[in-house]
Input
Amino acid sequence: VATIVVALLSVAGVAFGIVNRLAQEAERAAAREAIMAEELARQAAPPEVLVVTPEPTQFDPNFSITGTLDPVQETEVSFNVGGRLVSVNVTLGERVREGQVLATLDKRSVTAQGQLASAAVQASQAQVELARDRLQRAERLYAAGATSEAELLAARQQFALAEAQLAQATAQGRLASTDGSNHVLKAPFAGTVTKVPEGTGLVVMPGQPLFRIEDLSSLVLRSGITERALARVQVGDAVEIEQPPARGHVRAFAPSLDPITRRAPIE
Output
């Protein structure tokens, strides 16, 4: 009887354990199904969003650039020929007009060259007259049968040579006159003198910068803008300079980006 009781108790314990395990598995399955149902319901529900009231605002199309203010026109002025500087007619900071004489070089050598060229022209003109007279006489003699065709041809060649020498002398005279004008240096445009030689007496070379003239009547700022800003720029747009305080406008720009900086030039 005791053995039977123990066996029955053992069987009852095993049965209880099985029933308990099945109950736990059923609870876990129900929990999983509840979670899945909640997830499916959440996915099927419309998304939650934050609703706000829009506020009107004004779009500001301004953008900033940096650059350097330069004179609208500036240049270094020099003589086309070399020589000794004999006069400086302007001072530093002086306002000059277009064509005003800035300085002069020694013209004595140019004067001598001009006189020599004039004398050469007169001599060549005399040679032309003599060659013309000889040619006329040769043509009359040839027409009368008193001279040969070779002598007539020689007279014509001498006349042509005399005319060529006259043209050469005339060209040299013009060159000497041009050299004389090159000894006077004039302002190419109206502006302010910002550079002058230290004094007279020095020997200058052709193309040596002696004066600097800047047109300060207006200033230009050269810079670059981005591709996005380029789409909003037009010629004539207002520009406000911060330092120094001033106002201006866009006078030119090129719709082409630099391959390195990726910016477009603007003035």
